[in-house]
Amino acid sequence: MSNKQLSTAILCMAFAAMVACKAKPTDTQIQAKVSEQLSTMPEVTADVKDGVVTLAGNVADDATKASAEATVKSTEGVKSVVNNIMVTPAAPPEPPATTATNTADDTLRTGVTNISKDFPGADIKVDAGVITVTGELSAAKWKTLKQALDALHPKKVDASGLTVK
Predict the structure, then answer these.
(1) Which domains does the chain carry?
(2) pTM above 0.70, yes or no
């Protein structure tokens, strides 16, 4: 082989190596890079076909949606981005569970207020569905009061602080 042919062969191999190094990334390679870049956004998924990245998922705000798109656009080999991400604001917080208890307590308090007028020796309080009776009453008055309080359907009537004569 002559020197001229050898030189031409070496130049062709060098050119082929340079072209191979500058080859466009495959969809699989792009997918790997995009997935790595979106790893902080687990709610976003990406599919790649012919260099076109399609984003999907649900995020809480427009800023997150735009950030995902911008991140993917800057990836080598990405030709375009189809952003199908949906913005779904977070649901409003549930009302506190104490609302039902307060409503039940309010109903009990109204009933207790009406009943307690006839029992001046007793101090009656309502908390979390439990009626607490303290003070001093005769046995007959206590029996009548207990029946009236039970008719309100509390969780419990606590008379441990009541003195019965």
Answers:
(1) 25-87 (3.30.1340.30), 98-164 (3.30.70)
(2) no
